[in-house]
What does this fold into?
Amino acid sequence: MMRANQKPKPHAPPRPLFSCGFFRRCTQSVLSPTSPHQQPRRKPTTTTTSSSSSSSTSTSQSFTQWRFPHHLDQTPSTAPPPPAPTRPPPPPPLPVSNTLQETYQIAELHLASVSESDKLLALQLLERVVVPDPPSDPTCPPGLMRGLVSCLRSNRIVTAKYVTKILLALCLAEGNRHVAVEAGAARAVVETAAGLENSAVERALAALELMCTTAEGAAEVRAHAMTVPAMVAVMARLAGRGREYAISILAVVYGRGGEVPGEEIAVAPAEEVARAVALALEGECTARGRRKGAHLLKTLEEYGRLDLSQNGT
It folds into this structure.
C-alpha cells in the first residue's frame, strides 16, 4: 500500500520494439499509438523532388555511360578511302596499210617518237605484218632498222620481245642482213645478250647467226671484244637451239675467216673456250649444235690454239 506522503512515480515511456535507428523512426511515426502526438512532417516541395530526381537520373546516366560506353564512341570516325585512280585505256593499234612500204614508213615515224607508247604501237604493228609472213622485198629502210636497234638497247623486257621477233623475221631476207649490220644490230645483240630473257636471247642469236653469213657481219662479230665471253656465258645458260646458235657464232670467230689479211680478231684464250664447248656438248644440245661443236674443237686443235691431246680433253 502507498503511504500518504509518497507521490506516485511517473511511468517510464514504453521501450521501442526495435533498437536500431531505422525502425525506431517507424515506431515514432505519427501512426504509432505509443508515441506522443507530433506534427506531421512536411512533404518536400516539388522543386526539391524534381531536382533530386534529376540529379539521381543524371548520376545514373553518367554512371551507365561510363560503365557501358556506346558502341559508336569506340569506333574512330574515318573518312572513306579515295577511289583508286583509273588507268587510261591503251591507245588503239595502228592500222595496217595496203603496202609494206607504207607500213615501214608508219613504223619508222613512231619509232622516232620520244613516247614509249608510240614505239610500242610501232613494234606491235611490225609484229602483225612482218612476223607471220617474213618479206623478202622491199628491203627494210635503214631508219627503221636503226629504230629497232635502239629499242633493243633499251633493255626493256616487253620491247626486247617484239624487237627480237621482228629482227629475226627481217634477217631471213639476205638484203635485210646487210642493212641490219650497217645499223649496228650485230654489235647490239652481242652487247645485250646477257640481259635478255631466254626466249628473246635465243631469237637474237638466231638473227646474229644469219648476219654472220655476210662478210661484214662476220667481221663485226670477230672484232668485238665481248663476243666470246658473251657467247660462252649464253652457251652455259641456254640449252637446245640457244646453245646451238652460241656455238655457231663461236665457230665464226675461230673459223678460217679470221685469216683474212688486215682483219683484227678479239679472241679469248682458246683453252677456256674449248672447256666451255666440251661442257656444253655433254649437256642438252641439238644434233646440229653437236656437229658444230665437234668441228669447233677440231678447228682449235688444227690452228694450234689448243693441243687437246696434251690437256686430255
In short: The chain has 16 helices and no strands.
